[in-house]
Design goal:
This protein is α/β, with parallel strands linked by helices and 317 residues long. The chain has twelve helices and ten strands.
Length: 317
């Protein structure tokens, strides 16, 4: 897009000390009217840099709440500092905002808003998958996404096959479990580009989400836009995306039996399947478009500028 980009390593341990002054120098040189930080680490480091411009901070999941005590306490302290120094904190789901308020990670609820993620509509008109007995998994092969639960779901559906897109620390364990359970119908595609992932997803009969927690759930949203039915547990922001039996199937418990039963319903009840496909597309179009998200983001920026102008006027008087 022709925009200037300054690359910084914010993830290696040594950069935690060096990044704030480097960020401060880069920000002072650039002179922005507003800074938008995405994610806990970026938000914390920008907050530590104490820029002159107002800070908008988007929380992409409260992962700290699922960590062991020492890390959880440190993460909570960092979140509180960031939210105090941010003019506005944006959450991608009401669930996360409520959690943040209940744990006092955000001190002022008037400076905590929800803006759901939005996506671009898929090119063309995606045709529904020919097969209904093909399961799909998309996500990092890590503990939060629980890919091993997906394999237990597949095991309970004889005659179904499956495709898994993604890789991570649990990759070898998933390969071992596929062999141990003799799940010969499971194909692992590994890590793929976004375009390749969407192409693979369009051929799923059902996308099965097995996450332990989920701030929002972009994969579910993209599947719905493609006309692929989604089966997911009612965790995190997934309940804000999916209307049960209307735009997807929500399972109350994260159990292999419950998820497998929901998949079976969609494969056997073609009327329900079509209802979910049409409802999913309509829900994305009406509530989760990129246009809707960007409009809400512009409103948030305007809110920060108005507040800043008000403070400047008071200070001038």
């Amino acid at each position: 897009m022709g925009r200037e980009c300054i690359e910084m390593d914010l993830f290696s341990a040594g950069q935690l000390v060096q990044s704030p002054p480097r960020l401060r120098r880069a920000i002072d040189d650039f002179g922005p009217d507003l800074i938008h930080a995405h994610g806990s680490r970026a938000g914390f480091l920008v907050a530590m840099a104490k820029p002159k411009a107002p800070l908008v901070y988007t929380v992409h999941g409260l992962h700290l709440l699922h960590r062991p005590f020492p890390l959880r306490a440190l993460g909570a302290a960092a979140e509180r500092l960031t939210s105090r120094r941010a003019s506005l904190t944006i959450f991608v789901s009401h669930m996360d905002r409520d959690e943040a308020l209940s744990h006092r990670l955000v001190q002022d609820e008037n400076r905590a808003v929800v803006i759901h993620n939005g996506i671009r509509p898929p090119a063309g008109s995606p045709a529904p998958a020919v097969r209904t007995d093909h399961l799909g998994f998309v996500g990092r092969l890590e503990t939060p996404k629980d890919p091993l639960l997906f394999l237990r779901v597949v095991e309970r559906l004889p005659g179904f096959d499956a495709t898994m897109v993604g890789w991570g620390a649990l990759g070898p364990a998933v390969e071992e479990e596929i062999a141990r359970r003799s799940l010969t119908g499971v194909k692992m595609l590994g890590e793929m580009s976004h375009e390749e992932t969407l192409d693979a997803m369009a051929h799923f009969g059902v996308l099965v989400v097995t996450s332990r927690w989920e701030a929002f759930g972009l994969a579910a949203l993209e599947a719905m836009a493609l006309g692929v039915p989604v089966v997911a547990p009612r965790v995190g922001g997934l309940g804000e995306i999916i209307e049960d039996n209307r735009s997807g199937i929500l399972v109350q418990s994260r159990s292999a039996d419950g998820l497998a039963d929901a998949v079976r319903r969609l494969s056997e009840d073609l009327r329900l399947r079509q209802q979910v496909i049409e409802g999913g597309r309509a829900r994305v179009r009406e509530h989760f478009s990129e246009e809707h998200m960007l409009g809400a983001m512009e409103d948030a920026y305007e809110r920060v500028f108005v507040a800043k102008a008000g403070r400047s006027s008071i200070g001038h008087k």
